[in-house]
Design goal:
The complex is a heterodimer of chains A (about 240) and B (about 210).
Chain A: H1 13-17, E1 26-29, H2 39-48, E2 53-56, H3 68-72, E3 76-81, H4 88-95, E4 100-103, H5 106-117, E5 122-125, E6 139-142, E7 145-151, E8 155-166, E9 171-172, H6 181-187, E10 188-199, E11 218-221
Parallel strand pairs in A: 1-2, 1-8, 2-3, 3-4, 8-10, 10-11
Antiparallel strand pairs in A: 5-7, 6-7, 8-9
Chain B: H1 5-13, E1 21-24, H2 28-31, E2 43-46, E3 50-53, E4 76-82, H3 85-93, E5 99-102, E6 106-108, E7 113-114, H4 129-135, E8 138-143, E9 154-155, E10 170-173, E11 176-179, E12 188-192, H5 198-203
Parallel strand pairs in B: 1-2, 1-5, 5-8, 6-9, 8-10
Antiparallel strand pairs in B: 2-3, 3-4, 6-7, 10-11, 11-12
Helix pairs in contact in B: 3-4
The chains are: A alpha/beta (about 240), B alpha/beta (about 210).
């Protein structure tokens, strides 16, 4: 069966990035750890050979997968993240000064992206007041509370991953794979979405859409998903016959 | 006898109240979920975007799309809901979460908390900790009373970079429990682990606190 088609639909991850990807652009990359990352678009970004990227992403992948692949090839100049604990190559490049790093508290990062996509230049938050995060930022004291000015974030390109999408770019995420994807979809000058299954308009219930198609300029159906688990944790099954 | 990790977690669980929405950090805080009193309705939030966290899955039932903030595989409950990280931190920052239990590297007698960075060592990032302490109604810290070299972690002022200022309401260590009435009050010693004397606690604590 052939895939649905439409003006936003691209055949491959590489073709969906063509004409958007240039050296030194800012890219937002959805996901939390390896959960809900745009697996195919990250590979295509690496294969494009683009360099000097500023990447906004909560995490930096692991050594062998996700954004870790772009670190390995030294295509990332700067990361804006909240937690990067799972990546040895990241550590090495950061400690040697090859990689620039800006830490944002996770909620501040999420809100900066949401604000950027919603046309809000900045906002005041209590998060980070009195810490390193507030240094150099405008602050206001209201009724004894200190509020820190944080600015909205936008990107030249956002790459997001959803469970289902239609040819109009409407997206539905699955479980905790939603995470940063909806806000990043709104904050990209060009947003490219990859979905596990691309369908015709009408196949997704309009009431169930998480990201309306206006935020998505290009969409692909990912050819394959590894859906790697970072920290597999299980419990023992109760013994059979014991009540 | 110092309290074990489980005993610390059980004491933190005494903070839970029926109907609470709770965020548990990584490490000892995660163990608090094992001590929710039977019959009490407590909803666990995972800051990546879920309310109503269920237990770890049985082998073979792991779902890569269903993880907690420690990136562990988890399960959903009939009452669970999913949302974006922006909505999640809206809940946290907006004061909708009743209780956060977090680990710490240092706690100051003024309620300051340091738990994300040791200068000169590898820096992993603060994740959601700064947002949690800035927004959650009540913050309980669980930690070992002293660091590995024996030095005090509950001290007059934190020396490590802060996660938040004047944010800790209660401190539970393997040796003792300290609490304060509000964020203008000093900490008071509430309880000591069996066999710990007031003198021993004094020698292992540089923070000032009120006697029990």
């Amino acid at each position: 069966m052939s895939l649905p088609t439409g003006p936003k639909v691209y055949a491959t991850a590489a073709s969906a990035l063509a004409g958007v990807v240039r050296d030194n652009i800012t890219v937002m990359s959805g996901g939390f750890g390896l959960c809900g990352i745009a697996e195919n678009l990250i590979v295509a970004l690496r294969d494009s050979g683009v360099k000097g990227l500023t990447v906004v992403s909560n995490n930096a992948g692991v050594d062998e997968y996700g954004l870790g692949m772009l670190l390995k090839t030294r295509q990332i100049r700067k990361m804006i993240s909240s937690y990067v604990g799972e990546n040895k190559e990241f550590e090495r490049q950061y400690l040697s000064g090859e990689l620039e790093l800006e830490f944002n508290p996770q909620g501040t990062l999420a809100e900066r992206i949401r604000a950027g996509g919603a046309g809000i230049w900045g906002f005041y938050t209590r998060t980070g007041a009195g810490t390193l995060v507030a240094e150099g930022k405008e602050q206001r004291v209201v009724d004894g509370e200190t509020w820190v000015l944080e600015k909205g974030l936008v990107a030249d390109l956002s790459i997001v991953k959803a469970w289902r999408g239609d040819t109009e770019g409407n997206l539905i995420y699955r479980k905790t794979a939603r995470n940063f994807n909806p806000m990043m979809a709104t904050a990209g000058r060009v947003t490219v979405a990859e979905v596990e299954k691309l369908v015709e308009p009408g196949e997704l219930a309009p009431d169930q859409i998480h990201t309306p198609g206006i935020f998505v300029q290009r969409i692909i159906q990912g050819p394959a998903y590894r859906r790697q688990i970072e920290n597999r944790t299980i419990r023992k099954r109760p013994a059979a016959g014991v009540s | 006898m110092a309290w074990s990790r489980d005993e610390i977690a059980a004491r933190a669980a005494a903070e839970l109240r029926d109907g609470y929405y709770v965020n548990l950090g990584i490490g000892i805080p995660t163990l608090v979920a094992n001590f929710i009193p039977a019959g009490m309705r407590v909803v666990l939030q995972s800051e990546n975007g879920m309310l109503g966290m269920g237990p770890f899955p049985f082998e073979g039932e792991e779902d890569p799309d269903l993880i907690n903030a420690g990136k562990q595989t988890i399960t959903e409950l009939p009452s669970s809901s999913y949302f974006s990280s922006a909505d999640s931190f809206g809940m946290i920052r907006g004061g909708h979460i009743d209780l956060s239990v977090l680990g710490a590297m240092e706690v100051g007698e003024n309620g300051d908390l340091a738990n994300w960075m040791v200068p000169g060592k590898v820096v992993k990032g603060m994740g959601g900790a700064m947002d949690l302490v800035a927004g959650v109604k009540r913050v309980v810290v669980v930690m070992e009373h002293c660091s590995r070299d024996g030095s005090a972690k509950f001290k007059p002022r934190c020396e490590l970079p802060l996660t938040g200022t004047n944010v800790v309401d209660k401190l539970i260590t393997d040796l003792a429990i300290f609490s304060r009435a509000d964020r203008h009050s000093p900490f008071q010693l509430l309880e000591m682990a069996p066999g710990v004397s007031l003198d021993e606690l004094r020698t292992r604590t540089t923070a000032r606190y009120l006697p029990p």
